[in-house]
Amino acid sequence: MSTIVSLPDQTTAALPKRTYINNEHGILSWLLTADHKRIAMLYLVSITFFFFVGGFFAGMVRLELLTPAGDLMAADTYNKMFTMHGIVMIFLFLVPSVPATLGNFLIPIMIGAKDLAFPKINLLSWYLYMIGGIFVLTTLVLGGVDTGWTFTTPLSTHYLNTHVVTTATAIFIAGFSSIFTGLNFIVTIHRMRAPGMTWFRLPLFVWSNYAASVLMVLGTPVLAIAIVLVALERTIGIGVFDPTKGGDPLLFQHLFWFYSHPAVYIMILPGFGVISEVISTFSRKRVFGYTAVAFSSVAIAVFGFFVWAHHMFIMGVSNYSALVFSLLTMLVAVPSAIKIFNWSFTMQKGSITFETPMLYAFGFIGLFTIGGLTGVFLGALGMDVMLTETYFVVAHFHFVMVGGMLMAFLAGIHFWWPKLTGRMYPESVSKLAAIITFVGFILTFFPQFVVGYLGMPRRYHAYPPEFQVLNVLSTAGATVLGVGYMLPLLYLAWSLKYGAIAGNNPWQATGLEWQIQSPPLTENFLETPIVDHEAYDYEWLERKTERELQYVG
Amino acid sequence: MSLASTITHPPEPEIHASHDVHEHPFYQKHHFETAEQQREAASFGMWLFLLTEIMFFGGLFFAYLLYRNWYYDAFVSASNSINMVMGLVNTIVLIGSSFTMAMAVWSAEVRNKKLLQIFLLATVVLGFAFLGIKSGEYYDKFAEHHVPGASFDIHDFVHPQPGTDEKALSVDMANKTQIFFSLYFAMTGVHALHMIIGIAILIGLLWYSRSGIYTEGYVQPIENFGLYWHFVDIVWIFLFPLLYLINRH
To answer: pLDDT at residue A52 above 70?
Structure first.
C-alpha cells in the first residue's frame, strides 16, 4: 500500500546558514578538501566536462555518417573520432558517473556516517582521474589514437602509428581512480554504518553501488596489467601477445574482456540504484521485493565475471567454451529482469507523481528493457555470429549505456539536486528536457537496430547508399539528443542562483539523506543517527513529521 | 507544513563539540566513532587493496600458465639459463626482510621506538640488497642478449654450451624462449616496482617514526605496511619456483 504524502510548501523554506559549501572559502579549500561532498562536486564538474568532450566526438561521427560517401573526414580521422568517443565516454564518464558523484555524496549520508572511510584516498582518486583525463587530452592534442576503445592487439601493438601509449597510461591511471573509489565504498559500507543500519535496512542505492564496487576492485587490476603488457609490447618489444614471438592475441582479448565485460555492470549497477530510489519515492511505496532487488545486484556482479567471452565468439574460441559462455550470458538476464519486474510492481497501486526524475526513470525502464533484451539476442551464439560488429551491437549497448545509464544519471542528478545544492531545478523546462532526451534517443538509436540488422558494419566511415535514410534519421536524432543534454546543463547552472529554495525533504523521501538539511553540513550529522526503521518506510516518515509538528505546536 | 520546514533546521552547532566530550586517542580521525572502528576500517581496506594486487599479478600468472603449457621445452631451457643461486640468495634476503618487518610491527606494539627504527632500517637495507642482486641478474641477461626485443638472440638455446646437459632446441621452439623472458621481465619487473614503492614508503615511515607516533599506540600504519611488504614477499615466493626451478636437476 502506498502512503499519501503531501509535499512540503517550499515558499517558506530558507537556506541553512552553515553548509558544506560555505564552510570554507577559496579555490584551495576545494582542491585540498577531504569532504566527500566537495569531492563529489569536483567529480561532477569534471565528468560533465568530459561528457561534452565525448559528445563532441559522437557528433562528429554522426555528421560523417550523414552521407554514404566518406566526404567530411578521411577514414583515419573517422577512426580517431569513434575511438576518442569511446575512450572518453567509457573511462572518463560512464565508469565514474554515478558512483563518483552521487555515490560519493550520498553513500556516507545514507548509512549515517560522517565521511567515507578514507577521505584522503577519495581525494587522491579524483586527482588520479584528472591526471588520466589530462593524458587523454594530451593524446588528443598530439593527434589522437585510432585503435578503437578495445586496444585490439596486434593492431594496437604493431600496426598503428598513433598515440597508443599515452592513451594506455591514461586508462591505467584512471583505472586506479576507480579501484580506490570502489575500495573506499566497500570499506565504508562494511565498517561505517550507523547503529541500527543493518544490511537489509540499507537503501538499494547503497546495495547496487556496493556490487559495482566489488566489480571495480576485482576487475580493474586485470585491465591494468593487460594495458601494461600492451604498452611494454609497443615500447620495448616483449612478446606476450605477439604471434611472431609465439604469443597469442586471444590472450589479450581474454584479459581485456575479463575487465571490460564486468565494466558494463560497473556502469549500469549504480544506475539501478538510482532508479530504485526514484521509483520508490515517486510511488510513495516500499520497493517491491526489496531483498530480491538487493540480491539481484549482487547476482549481476557475480555472474558478470563469467560471461566475458561472449565478446569473442567470432575470434576463434572453442565451440564448447562459446556454448558455455552463451548460456552463462543468458543467466545475467535473470537478475536484470527481476529488477525490472520489481520496479513495475513497486509502481502498482502507488500514488505516482510525474516529477522529472520519475520521467527519466520511466525512460530508463523502457530503454533498458529494449537494450537488455537485444543483449539476450546477442548472447545467443548463432545470432551473435550474424550480428556482431554491426550497428545492431552499437544500438544495443547504446540502449543500455545511454538509454539506461545516462537516463539514470540524469534522474539521479535531478532527484538529488535539491540535496546537492539546496535549490530546486525548474520543473517545467526539465520535464521538457526529459521528453526531448527520450524522443531524441529513440530517433538516434532505433534506426541503428534496423540498419545493423540489414548488415551495416560498425566502425566504417562510408556505407552503401541504401542505408542513408536510416542514417539520416539517426543523425537527426543525435541533434535532438544534443539539445536534450544541453538543456539540463543550462537550467541546472541557472538554478544554482535562481532556483527555488528546496528545504530539507522536498520529495518527502525516506532516506537518511533527506532527514538532514540541504545542502548538508560538512559533518553531515550533528550526532550519529540511530536507525530504527526499515528502508522506504513512508509511514515512519509520516509519523515522524506529525511528531515534529506536535512538538512544536 | 510550514512549521515542519522551519523546525527541522538544526541549531547552530559548536565546532568540534564532540571532541571535547570524549577522550579520543590522538590518532583517531574525526569521522570515525571509535579508534577500534578506525583500526578495523584501515585493516580491511588494506586487505582489499591486496586483493586488487592479486588480480593484477593474476593476469601475469595466467599468461605464464598458458605459455608454459604450450612451450614447455622453451620454458625449461630458458629457466635453466637464469642464475638460480642469485635467485635463491634473493629469496633468503626477502624472507629475512619479512622477518625484520614483522619484528618492526612487534616493536611498534611494545612501544619501543629504538627497536622500531632499527628493524625498519634493516628492512630498507634488505630491500635494497634484493634490488641490487636483481639488477645484477638483469645485467647478465642484457649481456647474453636474452632481453626480448630487437637484440634478442636464440643462439644459446639452439647451440647450448658443450659439456652441459642442456637440450638443444629447434629454432622454432627456441624462438618461444622470448615469451619466457617477456614474462620473466614483466613479472619480476612489476614485482621490483612494488619493492621500490615499498622502500619509498618504508623511508617515509622511518622519517615519521622519529616523532614517536607509531610507538605511542598508533601501530596501524606499520601493521598495514607490513601486510603490503609480506604480500610482495609472497609474490616472490611464487615467482622463484615458477621462473627459476621449472626443471632443474
So the answer is: yes
Substitution target in A177, A181, A191, A256 with the highest count of B β-carbons within 10 Å is A191
CATH number of the domain where residue A266 is located: 1.20.210.10
Domain with B155 in it: 51-244
By the 10 Å C-beta count (0-12 exposed, 13-18 middle, 19+ buried), A159 is classed as exposed
ipTM: 0.92
In this prediction, residue A166 carries a pLDDT of 95
Q: Is A20 left (phi over 0), alpha (psi -120 to 50) or beta?
A: alpha
- DSSP symbols for A194-248: PTT--GGGS-HHHHHHHHHHHHHHHHHHHHHHHHHHHHHHHHT---TT-GGGT--
Distance CA A258, CA A350 (A): 41
Q: How far is CA A446 from CA A249, A366, A475, in A?
A: 34, 13, 11
- Here the CATH number for the domain that contains residue B176 is 1.20.120.80
Q: Is residue B120 part of a domain?
A: yes
**A550 touching chain B per CB within 8 A:** no
Quote the Cα angle for A124-A209-A178, to 5°. 30
Please give the residue range of the domain that contains residue A53: 25-552
A162 occurs within a structural domain:
yes
Q: CB atoms < 10 A from the CB of B103, how many? A: 18
- Angle formed at CA A145 by CA A144 and CA A147, multiple of 5 degrees: 160
By C-alpha distance, which of A125, A429, A503 is closest to A116? A125
Provide the residue type at A29 as one letter.
Answer: S
Burial class of residue B166, CB neighbours in 10 A (0-12, 13-18, 19+): middle
- The residue in chain A having the minimum alpha-carbon distance to the alpha carbon of residue B64 is A240
Whether residue A240 lies within 8 A of chain B, CB to CB, comes out as yes
B186 interaction partners in chain A (CB closer than 8 Å)? 228-229, 232, 238, 240
Does residue A443 surpass a pLDDT of 70? yes
Average pLDDT over residues A398-416: 96
Residue A7 within any structural domain of the chain: no
C-alpha cell at A352: 505516482
pLDDT averaged over chain A?
93
> What's residue B167's pLDDT?
84
One-letter amino acid for residue A165 of the chain: V
| Chain A contact set for B148 (CB, 8 A) | 236-239, 245
A15 lies in some domain: no
State whether A255 and B62 contact (CB < 8 Å).
yes
Number of domains in chain A: 1
pLDDT of residue B13: 47
Structural domains of chain B, count: 1
- Grouping H, G, I as helix, E, B as strand and the rest as coil, residue A423 is strand
Q: Does B47 touch chain A (CB under 8 A)?
A: no
Residues 141-180 of A with CB under 8 A from B: 179
pLDDT at residue A1 in the model: 52
A217 vs B48: CB contact, 8 Å cut-off?
yes
Asked whether residue A20 is assigned to any structural domain, the reply reads no
